[in-house]
Amino acid sequence: MSNHRQFHDDLSSDTPATEVQILQNENEDLRTKLEKSERQNRQLEKRAKESTKGQLLQENAELKEKISQMENEPQSFARSQPNNTEERVIPATLDTNLLSLASPTQVTDQEPVPPSFNSNHKEILIPEDSTGYDYPTIFYMPFKFRTEQVRVVDPYIRLWYQINNFERFCGDLVDHANMNKMGLGKITLTTCKADEANVEEQNRRFERLGKDWLQRRHGIELELIWADDKLLHHRHIDFCNGWKVLIDRGLDIYKPTTLKVPNDKFPCRQTKVDIIYHP
Prior knowledge:
CATH architecture of the largest domain: 2-Layer Sandwich
Strand order of the largest sheet: 1-5-4-3-6-7-8-2
Distance between the termini: 129 Å
Protein name: MITD1 C-terminal phospholipase D-like domain-containing protein
Shape: elongated
Number of strands: 8
Mean pLDDT: 76
Pfam families: MIT_C (PF16565)
CATH topology of the largest domain: Endonuclease, Chain A
Number of domains: 2
Radius of gyration: 36 Å
Organism: Capitella teleta (Polychaete worm)
Helix content: 40-55%
Number of helices: 5
CATH superfamily of the largest domain: MITD, C-terminal phospholipase D-like domain
């Protein structure tokens, strides 16, 4: 009886020790797996950070390169011109195309034909939704030289945001005219009448721009030439100093927005700009 009790006591005392050992082993295995998992997670996080950092560094380098190209673009264009370009005195006369401004102010028979220039030429491709293409950037070279008259031919200066674009162009042109002593005296706009719902606003804003701002404040005349929208299609800006700018979309290169942002922050529509110099 005592032997049986001793055996039972020994069995009872061994069982808890065995279970404890098993639990300890399981816990040790779990800790090992946890540590391994944590090491793997740290390695993955490190790789992700290194990958993100590499991508950011590459993107940063590409952005710097694009900015450098944009900053150097006007200078490289200027260097491509003849050495005597800046020293040349532009006569106070209009080229053949601008002389047509003396024609009657109602154009109904045919569209003015832009002159054919075989001369210095630069092309700018503006991507969709891009920014940084305000008018002073596009018209960098024409704005540098003396010009008494500027002619804008654009059939789509009709809606509120298109008129906004024309007002911005006039504002930038006047700023550079005053800064560079361009001698600007007249801006001529050849465009088309808006539809019945918008023509009143079109007339009112042109009246305010021409008389209240250009004429009264700066002594610059705004001449309006109304063209037949069935005949007028080409869009171009002529400067009487020999520069001509052709834009596929005319001045309407920005997407409409009511937000007040700097002009160079407006998102653009995709378009092509040709800048031509004809002495």
